[in-house]
């Protein structure tokens, strides 16, 4: 069995999860400080990909990254690189779809953080950076890690936007999800079932990890 | 205050839903609904024929599902409700016939189409014919869009590959597969692929000029058979519509789009 789709899925999911981990936390941190109205609007905008069908997200991404549109033309002229139909085009699609998950989890974690700890630290003369990295982040660790793991699990399962932005080129842009679809379409049910089993196994392991993390935190 | 806002929002929602309902109002009489599964390449022509047919037959409503003939065949075999099936290749129709799913003596060869090679507009790929395509694929410099092995246009492309002795597996790194012909058309039009193989009728509909058309030698004749299903709930009405598709007014619409009417 050609294992490329699995490697590609894991690679794309890992990169997207890392990107989303940092951007989600940053967004959650800064947006919490904004005035109410702006916060509300931004919140809706950033959570939208979670509730939009992935095909809608894919369509919008193609408007942005497609070869006949300004951004992509500029990239093509400057770097000679095409933004769609590469294995890393899927990273854009996956990151956009998965971002709200990390953002909301991070927001939840930060909101349940006891502000008095931060204030106490500042009265003791610690800088904002110190407070963020050494006090806020460790205290919210459980929520953030859960968010990261959930994002990764969702990232592996992304199909709609990925198939529109990266297409399906066996050995180059195929992911587990697009591979299963193509195998089903051409009637190769045997191989499709094997991939389904692989996907279930990975997702089960990931969710098990989330549960173990939660259990460990509760017993702390 | 909050309660008033909630009440107003609920009222607004009810009014909106009511308005939606009103625009879809049907005439009181029962309309005969004919379900037609047709190859994606027939989207534009059948939509036009629907307008004409429904104008002449006020008691009939045509409901279309357009997709790859392979997908539609699978759906029919898995029990989807369908009155009339029009496939882009004899293969899918043959499979249904062998499974005993077609109504007696209802199958006809309706249309002929041509398979064409098209380039992405403003693309710049130096391909002028199928011969050039063979070389470019071997060289790995281009991204080529085609239907997958379940899609008739993909199957015709595979025959063209066989004709040129191209090993599909060897060049698969340069190919992106679509699950129906319209997906391939989109890839070409959007420029996400450099070139692709679609039907001449789809090229015309998308304002693409083909650089080369496949001959019967390369991929065989591109015949579109049509048949009524044995389990059709509206078999008689479906046969009537199929007969209409073989008449001159319908043939006019098909020919204008680039098909050859065989009926």
Question: Would you kindly provide a written description of the structure presented here, covering whatever features stand out?
Answer:
Chain A is an all-alpha fold and 220 residues long. Chain A has a single domain, classed as MetI-like (MetI-like fold, Orthogonal Bundle). Chain A has eleven helices and no strands. Chain A has helices spanning 4-31, 36-51, 54-65, 70-79, 89-111, 115-123, 128-139, 141-156, 160-166, 176-185, 189-218. The N and C termini of chain A lie far apart (44 Å). With 263 residues, chain B is an alpha/beta fold. Chain B folds into two domains: 29-112 and 223-261, Periplasmic binding protein-like II (D-Maltodextrin-Binding Protein, domain 2), CATH 3.40.190.10; 115-213, 3-Layer(aba) Sandwich (D-Maltodextrin-Binding Protein, domain 2). In chain B, 45% of the residues lie in helices and 21% in strands. Chain B has eleven helices and eleven strands. Chain B has helices at 2-23, 43-56, 69-77, 90-98, 130-139, 152-164, 181-190, 200-205, 216-219, 235-245, 248-257; strands spanning 32-39, 60-67, 84-86, 108-113, 115-119, 144-147, 175-178, 195-199, 210-213, 222-228, 260-261. In chain B, strand 6, helix 6 and strand 7 form a beta-alpha-beta unit. In chain B, helix 3 runs parallel beside helix 4. Chain B starts with a helix and ends with a strand. The mean pLDDT of chain B is 89. At the A-B interface, helix 10 of A face strand 7 of B.
List keywords for this structure.
heterodimer, A: 220 residues, mainly alpha, MetI-like fold, 11 helices, 79% helix, B: 263 residues, alpha/beta, D-Maltodextrin-Binding Protein, domain 2, 2 domains, six-stranded mixed beta sheet, five-stranded mixed beta sheet
């Amino acid at each position: 069995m050609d294992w490329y789709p699995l490697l590609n899925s894991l690679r794309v999911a890992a990169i997207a999860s890392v990107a989303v981990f940092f951007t989600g936390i940053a967004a959650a941190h800064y947006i919490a400080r904004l005035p109410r109205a702006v916060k509300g609007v931004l919140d809706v905008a950033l959570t939208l990909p979670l509730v939009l069908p992935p095909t809608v997200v894919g369509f919008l991404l193609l408007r942005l990254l497609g070869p006949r549109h300004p951004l992509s033309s500029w990239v093509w002229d400057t770097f000679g690189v095409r933004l769609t139909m590469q294995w890393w085009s899927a990273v854009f699609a996956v990151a956009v779809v998965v971002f709200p998950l990390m953002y909301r989890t991070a927001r939840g974690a930060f909101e349940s953080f006891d502000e008095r700890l931060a204030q106490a630290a500042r009265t003791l003369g610690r800088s904002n950076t110190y407070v963020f990295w050494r006090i806020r982040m460790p205290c919210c660790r459980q929520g953030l890690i859960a968010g990261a793991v959930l994002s990764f699990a969702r990232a592996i399962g992304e199909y709609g936007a990925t198939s529109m932005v990266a297409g399906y080129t066996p050995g180059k842009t195929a992911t587990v999800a697009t591979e299963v679809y193509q195998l089903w379409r051409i009637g190769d049910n045997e191989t499709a079932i094997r991939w389904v089993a692989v996907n279930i196994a990975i997702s089960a392991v990931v969710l098990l990890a989330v549960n173990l993390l939660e259990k460990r935190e509760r017993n702390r | 205050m909050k309660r008033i806002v909630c009440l107003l929002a609920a009222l607004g929602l009810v009014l909106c839903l009511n308005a939606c309902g009103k625009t879809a109002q049907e005439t009181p009489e029962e309309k005969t609904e004919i379900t037609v599964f047709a190859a994606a390449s027939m989207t534009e022509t059948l939509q036009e024929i629907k307008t004409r047919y429904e104008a002449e037959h006020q008691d009939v409503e045509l409901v279309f599902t357009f997709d790859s003939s392979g997908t539609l065949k699978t759906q029919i075999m898995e029990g989807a409700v369908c009155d009339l099936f029009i496939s882009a290749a004899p293969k899918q129709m043959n499979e249904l016939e062998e499974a005993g799913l077609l109504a007696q003596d209802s199958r006809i060869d309706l249309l002929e189409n041509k398979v064409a090679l098209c380039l992405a507009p403003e693309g710049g790929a130096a391909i002028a014919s199928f011969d050039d395509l063979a070389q470019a694929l071997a060289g790995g410099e281009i991204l080529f869009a085609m239907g997958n092995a379940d899609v008739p246009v993909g199957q015709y492309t595979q025959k063209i590959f066989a004709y040129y002795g191209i090993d599909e597996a060897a060049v698969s790194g340069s190919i992106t597969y679509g699950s129906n012909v319209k997906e391939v058309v989109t890839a070409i039009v959007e420029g996400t692929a450099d070139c692709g193989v679609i039907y001449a009728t789809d090229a015309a509909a998308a304002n693409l000029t083909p650089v080369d058309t496949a001959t019967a030698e390369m991929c065989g004749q591109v015949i579109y058979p049509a048949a009524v299903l044995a389990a059709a709930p509206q078999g008689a009405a479906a046969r009537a519509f199929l007969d209409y598709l073989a008449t001159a007014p319908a043939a006019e619409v098909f020919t204008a789009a680039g098909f050859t009417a065989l009926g």
